[in-house]
Amino acid sequence: MRFLSSLTYPKSSFWVSVLFTGALFFTMFYSCGGHTHDSTTVAKDTLVEYQPPDTSSLKDDAYGALVKYGAKLMQNTAYYIGPKGTQGSYLGNEMTCTNCHLDRGAKTFGNSLYTTHKAYPQFRARENRVLTISDRVNNCIERPHSGIPLPLDSKEMLAFVTYIQWLGKDYDETKHYGHGIKTIDYKGKRSNPEAGALVYEKHCKSCHMADGQGVYDSTRSAYVNPPLWGKYSYQEGSSMHRVIKSASFIYHNMPRTVTWDKPVLTVQEALDVAGFVNSYLIHERPKGKDPNYPDPRVKPIDYFRGPYNDTFSAYQHTFGPWDDIEAAARK
Ligand code: HEC
Ligand code: HEC
């Protein structure tokens, strides 16, 4: 077992066996379809898939211990800092970081956290100010997790940041690919949430259940399969709530056994099911404390709520098509 070799998880070894499969990494050459939507899109066929470091290579010192604690926090977030957390109550729900940052941020294009430590401090449109990496961790705690910020000087925050830095320490953007979420090619397409209901029935319901509430294991304070909507899921206005972002994640990672290069869904099916899951007309989810952007000019095109810097409707921004919106923004 590579990556997890020296980690132990509280209460159960279930995750260790589940993640055994996820911890097998393959190096392969990748040739790209050609379009570029963001920095995660691979442009060259000379890049190789990043292989994250192995925790067994860590020394038995304070740094090594902190990295390992960070990995455990990513894996069993709610156990430590959830509503009934052993280290304090910070999260408002019992989702874990690894529910969305797959394999603790170490899965290729599984919302991985490889370039993250290099990318901060960074200006973020969402807050209209410069954020440190700790602020960014707290964003995910406040938004998808509906929580309250971890103290910046807490052991837990230090562990998250140290883990993230360690995870991406050998990542070189001129040599590697695999960071973040690879964006789908949504050109000329829109999301049809009604068609998405059928995709859900066929490809998602078996794990996330008919009511979208997933499967929860109370003995571990963890989801076997996390909720996709409802009061225990991520908030309105979090990144996963945006249809393009969510469809990109789903296309490359769901059903859970899929790898980015062998998707099961078509791009259209991913867009449709992302619209179904995230539709504010079909499903409720926690309302964001501050679901808006301070500056509409820098709002992502697929954000669900106006005001926008153009005249397109909230419906079109949310469900597409996005071509005219992008063309207008370029002017
Ligand atoms: C409901 C899903 C979800 C959960 C749960 C979640 N995140 Fe995130 N996180 C996201 C998405 C989506 C992004 C944005 C990725 C993008 O824009 O490509 C993100 C971004 C981030 C980033 C910034 C990455 C970068 O390179 O800029 C960090 C750091 C982060 N998350 C940490 C965490 C931590 C730590 C936890 C657990 C406490 C967590 N997240 C839980 C969905 C989630
Ligand atoms: C085989 C079971 C399985 C199937 C089928 C499946 N998922 Fe998942 N899904 C998971 C698991 C498990 C996670 C959490 C990842 C982890 O903790 O390793 C997850 C995470 C997610 C997440 C991010 C976390 C959250 O709760 O928001 C989304 C979004 C998601 N799945 C959507 C879908 C969609 C849409 C489909 C159908 C196309 C689907 N999944 C099919 C098991 C599954």
Descriptive key words:
331 residues, mainly alpha, Cytochrome Bc1 Complex, Chain D, domain 2, 2 domains, two-stranded antiparallel sheet, 14 helices, 35% helix, globular, disordered N terminus
Structural summary, described in words:
The protein has 331 residues and is mainly alpha-helical. It folds into two domains: 14-177, Cytochrome c-like domain (Cytochrome Bc1 Complex, Chain D, domain 2), CATH 1.10.760; 193-330, Cytochrome c-like domain (Cytochrome Bc1 Complex, Chain D, domain 2, Orthogonal Bundle), CATH 1.10.760.10. The protein is built from 14 helices and six strands. A two-stranded parallel ribbon has the order 1-4. Strand 2 (122-124) and strand 3 form a beta hairpin. Helix 9 (193-203) packs across helix 12 and helix 11 (243-253) crosses helix 12. The protein starts with 13 loop residues before the first helix and ends with a helix. Bound molecules: heme C (2 copies).
How large is the count of helical segments? Answer: 14
Radius of gyration computed on alpha carbons: 19 Å
Highest CATH level, the class of the largest domain = Mainly Alpha
Percent of residues in helices = 25-40%
What does the main sheet amount to? 2 strands, parallel
- Using the 3D structure, state the CATH architecture of the largest domain: Orthogonal Bundle
Which stretches are low in confidence, meaning pLDDT under 50 for 5 or more residues running? Answer: 1-40
Bound molecules: heme C
Percentage beta strand: 5-15%
Strand order, sheet with most strands: 1-4
In whole angstroms, the N-to-C terminal distance is 52 Å
Order of helices and strands: HEHHHHHEEHHEHHEEHHHH
Count of DSSP E strands? 6
Mean model confidence by pLDDT: 88
Structural class: mainly alpha
Number of discrete domains: 2
Tell the overall outline.
globular
CATH superfamily of the largest domain: Cytochrome c-like domain
